[in-house]
Amino acid sequence: MEIEKKFLIKALPENLDSYQKKVIEQGYLCESPTVRIRKSNEDYILTYKSRLGTEHIHADARVNQEVEVPLSREGYEHLKEKIDGYPVEKTRYLIPLPDGHTGELDVFGGRLSGLYLVEVEFADADEVGKFSPPEWFGEDVSGDIRYTNSFLALEEDLSFITEN
Prior knowledge:
Layout: E1 2-9, E2 20-30, E3 34-40, E4 43-50, E5 62-70, H1 73-80, E6 84-96, E7 102-108, E8 116-122, H2 125-130, E9 137-140, H3 149-154, H4 159-162
């Protein structure tokens, strides 16, 4: 199970290149349930996500059932030709937070250039309630579907990105 909160950011942290990073390209084969393919550095992954059975875990976080399985490069390339919408390109920086969590800062590229989001994953609902975002985090957009990667991959009108 995946329990996470997602935020816009106020400012990029300093020394971004000092953090571990992943160069990610992903696409969506289905939106409901979510079926995603991802290339993360040199790893290839097929992910299935569903919200079924998670509706009452925590109101202020995004909760999904999630299953990931490895793909070969050839399998990824084959499925990439079948994605809906556009591929999502981003660099993910893994930033240790003072409370022991990790902020996964996504700096988007391609057609989503200028968008920055940070996600924090939690072990359970209690952790969500105790979380205090660092100063550089901005608005909590966990409940805003426009900031889900599947929406970003399919949406034509991205004018809301420049509004923030």
